[in-house]
Amino acid sequence: MLALTALLPAVPTPVLLAAIEERALALVVLAGGKPVLVRHKPLPGDAARAEAFIGRELSRTLAHAREQDKLSGPVTVWLASAGAGEGSERVERWAAAESGVLVRRLGVGAGRVPEFTGVPDVRLWSLLGTAWGGQA
Fold it and tell me: What sign has the CA pseudo-torsion 5, 74, 58, 91?
């Protein structure tokens, strides 16, 4: 999960990276480009419960970071998911209800993910992130 942070553009504002895989949700809060909070949670098997769980964990993570790490102002949420349906709609609905939250999808051509076809899922992006050696 931390390897994915290397694929994000460098920005001065706080960032919440949310990676949704088949059965897991991973969240990393970055402040000043450095991780301040990392969470990894298994998702419930039931799709409806998983969607509710994702929204609840996003809210809890952001609230904790704002309180404990004194993060304020707008937050960019970078969403990495293998498919469009894997919780991404839930993240979009959650962000619409939050103040100052912008959602961007980490995918081909976004952040530092190169423009080529065949990026199958979040695991490949993690490998790209560990190989990335430069600045944005």
Answer: negative
Alpha carbon of 56 to those of 14, 32, 43, 52, 115: distances in Å?
19, 25, 12, 6, 33
Residue 107 has pLDDT above 80, yes or no: no
Please indicate whether residue 64 or residue 120 has the higher confidence score (pLDDT): 64
- Comparing 125 with 21, the larger pLDDT belongs to 21
Confirm if 120 and 82 have CB atoms less than 8 A apart.
yes
pTM here? 0.76
Q: What are phi and psi of 7, to 5 degrees?
A: -85, -10
107 Cβ partners below 8 Å, 6+ apart? 80, 113, 119
